[in-house]
Specification:
Distance between the termini: 29 Å
Oligomer: single chain
Structural class: alpha+beta
Shape: globular
CATH class of one domain: Alpha Beta
CATH architecture of one domain: 2-Layer Sandwich
Helix content: 10-25%
Largest sheet: 10 strands, antiparallel
Radius of gyration: 20 Å
Strand content: 15-25%
Number of helices: 11
CATH topology of one domain: Alpha-Beta Plaits
Length: about 400
């Protein structure tokens, strides 16, 4: 019996296959009525579930083919298993998520992101997708194809992705500092724009934000010791109160891009362990309104909340992206693992953010209605049509897809 990373979901799959070749993936799809890919399991709802079989790509032969400004990788590779090789070749990814432990294909399929006003979701850096479709044939979809905007953040509905091609940029060094004591919401936009990647943390139990993580290129001027009423932390910090040694360096020491962009180090178990997560995405123009709305319900959030994080994402054109068509603020919530209190807090968040067109994260806990989801993603009908075209019999579908992307 298989569960997701958090242990809150027990999958209904009848078997979990670990193919060692693309040909074996084809064979599994050809003989199965229902199939879903399973990545790192770091989703918190049933997006990876099925009443058929699951397929993990972790055992496929490792493939890292570095070209001129791009790399083609095995879809089941974790980001942390790829980055040092890219850096040694003089390249960097455009951005990374908070965890280097997540699988490349799974992160792309669900709209995973990092932070930075100029940085898009990770899927926006994908230029080609190789997948095995419902007919068990291998096909490649490329940037520029009319349907490509629906092929990357596809929620696993087009087939089993076996390889992806990612955009690269020249490698660079980074430094990180943690500041403490950001009080005024009116300063948050300036803070989020101040470096390559910035994250803000709060427990919604007091005023403002307890921690601000600032990740900058090492060629940028060092930020001041005091800034907007904040002071630099004088030791490593952990956002959830765990062991700070699990976190990437924060005291301004130089490091490579892949050592600083994530929040957590690959050699440690990711994040804090038992938890649930939700995330909502509002237009960047609604930043202050969103923070004030959440402050208004913080007494309903705080008892269930381990920590909340605020990040920024640049707009993209991917049909099911959380940032499709608009520069975006990501409002992330890590809840204690008790389902009841977390669900009540989620309801409070959704109620507070409803006037601000808050899109839920496809892979996390949410209760937004299918009708509202259809309003929030204008290209959802295009995505549903593409899924029907590629999978007319529903081989890759599951209950979540049937709810939000009906046939």
């Amino acid at each position: 019996m298989t569960t997701n990373w958090a242990g809150n979901i027990t999958f209904g799959a009848t078997a979990l296959h670990r193919p060692t070749s693309v040909a074996e993936v084809q064979e599994i799809i050809a003989r199965s009525e229902r199939v879903r890919a399973l990545g790192s399991g770091h989703s918190f709802n049933r997006i990876a579930d099925t009443d058929g079989v699951q397929v993990s790509l972790a055992a496929l032969p490792r493939r890292v083919e570095i070209g001129d400004g791009e790399v083609t990788v095995t879809a089941g590779l974790r980001y942390g298993e790829l980055v040092a090789e890219l850096d040694a070749a003089g390249y960097a990814l455009l951005n990374m998520g908070s965890l280097p432990h997540i699988v490349v294909a799974g992160a792309a399929a669900t709209g995973t992101h990092g932070s930075g006003v100029a940085n898009q979701v990770l899927a926006a850096g994908v230029s080609a997708v190789q997948l095995v479709g419902a007919d068990a044939e291998v096909r490649t979809l490329r940037r520029g194809d009319p349907a490509f905007p629906g092929a990357v953040i596809s929620l696993g509905a087009l087939g089993i992705v076996t390889a992806m091609t990612l955009d690269l940029q020249p490698a660079f060094g980074m430094r990180q500092w943690v500041y403490e004591g950001l009080r005024g919401f009116e300063d948050v936009e300036e803070v989020l724009s101040a470096a390559y990647s910035v994250s803000l943390y709060t427990h919604w139990r007091g005023e403002g934000f307890e921690q601000v993580w600032v990740k900058q290129r090492d060629t940028d001027p060092e930020p001041p010791a005091r800034w907007l009423g904040m002071t630099r932390a004088d030791a490593q910090r952990h956002p959830v109160g765990g062991d700070p040694a699990q976190c990437t360096p924060q005291l301004g020491q130089p490091g490579r891009w892949y050592e600083v962009l994530p929040h957590f180090r690959l050699e440690f178990t990711p994040s804090s362990g038992d938890e649930l997560q939700s995330e909502y995405f509002v237009p960047r123009a609604a930043l202050v309104d969103a923070l004030r709305a959440l402050e208004g319900v913080r007494e309903r959030l705080a008892p269930a909340l381990m920590v909340a994080e605020v990040r920024s994402i640049a707009a993209d054109d991917l049909w099911l992206s959380p940032a499709q068509g608009r520069d975006t603020i990501a409002l992330h919530f890590t809840w204690y693992p008790e389902e009841g209190p977390a669900r009540r807090a989620v309801a409070a968040v959704e109620e507070a953010l409803a006037p601000l067109d808050a899109r839920p994260h496809w892979g996390k806990v949410f209760s937004t209605s299918p009708e509202r989801v259809g309003e929030l993603w204008p290209h959802l009908p295009d995505a549903a049509a593409l899924i029907r075209q590629h999978d007319p019999e529903g081989k890759f579908r599951n209950a979540l897809l049937d709810t939000y992307l009906p046939r």
